[in-house]
Design brief:
alpha+beta; six-stranded antiparallel barrel; five-stranded antiparallel sheet; 18 strands; 39% helix
Length: 748
């Protein structure tokens, strides 16, 4: 029990229209003020505020002990927290447009305060109550001002005492007037009259319940709002139904006795659990995904490396050629990647011509757990053990298909790991890996000749397979180099503040080593007293579809502060995030510069919004420190542009050099042919060429049909003879030399 608490009586009425103003244990007294005129917490709304009641403190505490009443925190009205700047604002609501003239509210408040100003500026609240000045002083004040009645002075003083000295408690109770679904009274009809006046339907509670039930029953996917409205009227507002000429005739009630289509579309989605028309048309699955994205549920909450891994398979968007002949075009290979959800570190990959399946994903997991020294040396890249960390995540997140087999589930169980599956067509849950796949296509696959750019060939367009000249052995080094650059050299933002403190280099491999060596725990959110929020400074903010973002107060331009996003369950349930998807809303929020974990939004009361981040140390950073850190990050990104540009320039130069050599060899083979093949004949035989290529590399392709084997047997291949010099001096790559000799024999 403390001053300002709301008193709730545990009787049949359950009244809660009194508030504790002050209590004194020495004199055994407690004063209670009426709040029935202020908020909807009371049973009545009287224009006059009665005087505070006095009672024995011991008797009051005895009632609490006997569970006859209880004290709960008082829900302070939102207008009590308004400042002078808020009174000058036109519209503070983010949910509905309003036309309230707050300057008139302020004028009424100041007028009432002038009546009691001599008393409240000279005495405190406890002095006024102890000396009983609230009983006699208003009458003397009325005689001084020459007023016929002291009623307004008594009412203003009682409001001031009930508000515990808050000047805004003298505001008129205009907030209880009007509002959604409430009848409005006018001296003259509002608006411009055009034609005949049609009396509309005033919706009450029963009508809104009917509209909600009708919306839930009749508004389905593929059913328009008008059709659902007609069925709703037939069910609830039909006065007579009869059959006439094999057709049902429905006679409705008069137009002023049933809701309009606009009212049906307005109140139907507001009923419990109902979705909007757009969400219904998109489907419940799509609606659930959008809700998860707005509320932040689709974002991973993992703050430990190696705890959750993401696995996905994507085509390489490439047309490779055979090792035996660059005229033999192979089909598009597929790449399976295993990456960390926290840092985006790629643990392992598997690239092959097999279609995505359980086996390809298991090979990628095996590659992630194995040493990559021998794997990279196979393609001419020398690395050390610590340059590509080998690790198997405790949990693996994959598509709802490739790993969902008996083989995959048993294999994951034997590895003492667990598997999770994403919903179909919900790639946002694997955003880290989906982004990695897109970057790999743009910065590597689409730069190599023969790439299909991830799309089908348009009519009349040159087939990309005609430019194919890279072999599998030439493609893999470029892919591995891009992964090593991503893991070991690419500068990324710090996911945790503690990494900055320890001086960790902002690259994935260093962060990965730091996470393996050091552990940390999440901090518990700290609540701030609501009374101190009124003293906090205000910052400009904007409401986006994912929450509230803050503007940088030190910038001359409207720049958002990175990594500061706030939301709450109330903000999500209010529907403001869904409206902000099409129209952003400017706001002003209360921020504690020493605590960025929570901000306050003054909207129909002080609403707390929590920061949405995976970093528990964000709660320990001040606003100034974070702004300086963000400024340093901008400088680092600016300085790394030159290095980043040099890397890509050298990469393109390497690709052009290899492509020039490959095109030259391809042209020599093409000129050596007796009969020049057509474009169509060059693109034929991909399946047979791939089958032969996999056999030559010691792989085990899928068995081919007998007719295809006969076609391969009919091909004449001139056997190659090995010279004595080649036998005495073995080549470091005998398989490639043998394939090239077979190719020369085929050309001759």
């Amino acid at each position: 029990m403390q001053a300002g608490d709301l008193i709730v009586e545990h009787d049949a009425c359950g009244a809660s229209n009194q508030r504790i103003i002050f209590f004194d244990e020495v004199t055994d007294t407690i004063w209670k003020g009426s709040i029935a005129f202020i908020t909807e917490q009371g049973q009545s709304r009287r224009a006059y505020c009665p005087q505070p009641k006095i009672e024995s403190l011991r008797v009051f505490q005895k009632k609490i002990a006997e569970n006859l009443l209880s004290c709960v925190p008082f829900n302070v009205p939102g207008e009590w927290s308004w400042t002078n700047k808020d009174f000058e604002a036109r519209d503070l609501s983010i949910l509905r447009r309003e036309r309230r003239q707050r300057l008139k509210w302020k004028a009424r408040r100041d007028q009432a305060f002038e009546l009691i100003k001599p008393l409240v500026t000279k005495y405190t609240i406890d002095d006024i109550l102890h000396q009983s000045l609230h009983l006699s002083w208003p009458a003397r004040r009325a005689r001084e001002l020459g007023m016929r009645s002291s009623r307004d002075i008594y009412c203003a003083l009682h409001k001031y005492l009930t508000g515990l000295g808050n000047k805004n408690a003298l505001l008129p109770a205009y907030g209880n007037c009007g509002g959604a679904g409430k009848q409005k009274f006018f001296t003259t009809p509002p608006g411009k009259i055009s034609g005949e006046i049609i009396n509309g339907f005033n919706s009450d509670k029963l009508a809104r319940i009917r509209m909600g039930l009708g919306w839930k029953k009749h508004k389905k996917e593929g059913v328009s709002v008008r059709v659902a409205y007609d069925r709703f009227l037939n069910e609830f507002y039909a006065s007579q139904v009869c059959w006439k000429d094999s057709m049902m005739k429905v006679i409705l009630l008069p137009p002023d006795q049933y809701p309009s289509e606009y009212q049906f579309a307005e109140w139907g989605p507001r009923y419990e659990g109902n979705m909007s028309a757009k969400s219904v048309n998109d489907g419940e699955t799509s609606h659930r995904k959008k809700v998860a994205l707005r509320s932040g549920q689709s974002r991973t909450s993992v703050i430990s490396a190696g705890l959750l891994g993401q696995i996905d398979t994507t085509p390489c968007d490439q047309n490779l050629v055979s090792e035996s002949s660059r005229l033999k075009i192979l089909r598009t290979p597929y790449k399976a990647e295993l990456a960390d959800s926290f840092l985006g570190y790629i643990y392992g990959i598997h690239v092959g011509f097999e279609h995505p399946c359980t086996t390809t994903n298991l090979l990628a997991i095996l590659n992630g757990a194995s040493s990559k020294v021998e794997f990279c040396a196979r393609y001419g890249i020398n690395i050390r053990e610590h340059e590509w960390i080998s690790l198997t995540p405790r949990r693996i997140l994959g598509d709802n298909g490739e790993m969902k087999s008996e083989t995959g589930l048993i294999s994951i169980e034997e590895m003492e790991a667990s598997i999770e599956f994403c919903e179909s067509y919900f790639g946002e849950r694997k955003a880290v890996l989906e982004s990695s796949n897109h970057r790999g296509h743009v910065h590597n696959d689409h730069l190599i000749p023969g790439s299909n750019k991830g799309r089908q060939t348009k009519r009349g367009e040159k087939p990309p397979g005609l430019d194919a000249c890279f072999t599998f052995q030439e493609y893999m080094p470029l892919l591995i180099q891009s992964i090593l650059y991503r893991n070991n050299e690419e500068i990324i933002p710090y996911p945790l503040i503690e990494m900055r403190k320890d001086g960790v280099r902002p690259v994935r491999i260093e962060m990965m080593k730091w996470c393996i060596e050091k552990g940390y725990v999440a901090s518990t959110p700290t609540d701030i007293d609501a009374l101190r929020v009124r003293c906090l400074p205000r910052l400009k903010a904007v409401l986006h579809a994912d929450g509230v973002h803050l503007f940088d107060p030190t910038s001359a331009y409207e720049c958002l502060i990175p990594s500061l996003r706030y939301s709450s369950q109330w903000l999500h349930q209010s529907g403001a995030l869904e409206r902000a998807h099409t129209r952003r809303r400017r706001l002003e929020v209360h921020v504690n510069p020493s605590n960025l974990q929570e901000i306050w939004l003054n909207l129909d009361g002080l609403r707390p919004l929590q920061i949405q981040t995976r970093d528990p140390y964000m709660a320990q950073v001040t606003l100034y420190d974070w702004l300086s850190i963000s400024s340093d990050d901008k400088v680092k990104n600016l300085l790394s542009r030159q290095e980043h540009r040099e890397y890509h320039v050298g990469r393109i130069a390497t690709i052009d050099h290899v492509a020039k050599k490959a095109r030259k060899e391809k042209k020599q083979e093409f000129d050596a042919l007796d009969k020049k093949p057509s474009k169509a004949s060059q693109l034929k035989g991909k399946r047979q060429n791939t089958h032969a290529e996999m056999l030559a590399q010691g792989l085990f392709p899928k068995p081919m049909a007998s007719q295809q084997l006969n076609n391969m047997k009919n091909e004449q291949v001139v056997p190659a003879t090995l010279s004595a010099q080649s036998i005495s001096n073995p080549s470091p790559n005998p398989v490639r030399d043998l394939l090239r000799q077979l190719r020369r024999g085929h050309q001759s």
